[in-house]
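Example 3.2
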Amino acid sequence: MKYGYIGLGLMGGCLARNLIRAGKDVLVFDLNNEAIEQTLAVGTTGSAAKSAVEMKNCDVVFTSLPLPAHIEETMLGEEGLLSKMKTGAIYIDVSTIDPQTARKVADYSASKGIDFLACPLGKGPAQAEKGEEPIFAGGKKEVYEKMMDTLKIVGNPIYYMGDVEQAYAFKLISNLIGMTNMAVLAEGMRIGEKAGIDPNLLVTLLADTGANSFQLAVRGPWIVNNDFANRFGVKLAHKDVRLGIEMAEAWGYDAKFCKMAKKAYEKAIDAGYGMEDCNAIYKVI
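Structure, written as C-alpha cells:
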C-alpha cells in the first residue's frame, strides 16, 4: 500500500514518521524542506514529493494542515488532489476543521469515488511522536474498520465518533474547553502572585483540589519555568477557539466564556506571541 502525507508540522510530521518507522511506503510533502528532511531521517521507506499532486496514485493520502481553507485549496476543485486520485483510494484528514467544511470535503470526495475519513487528534506532539495520540474518527464505518491497522500505527487509542461532523465537532469542543481552561489557569496564577503564593507551591497544591486539569499538569509547570516553547501555538489555539465559537453560533448557541478566552489569545497575538505555546497568554493576562 502506498501512502501520501501532506503537512509535516508539529503533529503531521510525527504521524508521518510513525508510518515510515513501521516500514510503510510513504510519499511526503511540505512547504518546509527542513520538515521533510526531519521526517525522512527516521527510516528508508519514505520519499519526498515536489507537490501534493504527485500523490495522485497513492492508495491512502493523509493531510495535516492549519486551516480549513488550506484543506479546500489542496484537495478540492478540478486542480485539487481529490480530482486526480484514483477511484477507491482513501483520504484521511487529521487537521482541526469545522463540521461544515468537513461535510463539503466528504461530499466532494464521494463525488470523485474517494472515501473520506475524518481523524482529528486529541493531544500534542510528544504523544504523537510515540504513537500515543488519541484519534477521534468519523466517516463510513466500513472505511474506519478497513483503515484500523493503519490508524493504530499513527495513534492510539482510536474512537469511532459517527459521521465526519461528529468527529470534528468533538475536537473543537475539546479545544474550546482546553484553551478556555488555559486562560482561566493563567489568570488564577496571576491572582496567586498577587496573593504572594510561591508559584511552584501554587501549581503543586492546585493539583490536589478541584482546580486540577490537564492544562495545570502540563502547562502550569511550564509557566512557572518561563517555558513558552511552541508545542501548540497561540495562533492555532486562537484558530480552534474561533472555529468552535462559530460552530456553536451556527447552532444558535452563544459561547460566552469561550469568547472571553478568544480575546486573550487575540491580545497575545497582537503582543507578538503568536508563535509561542498557547501558555504564552499568561504574558498578557
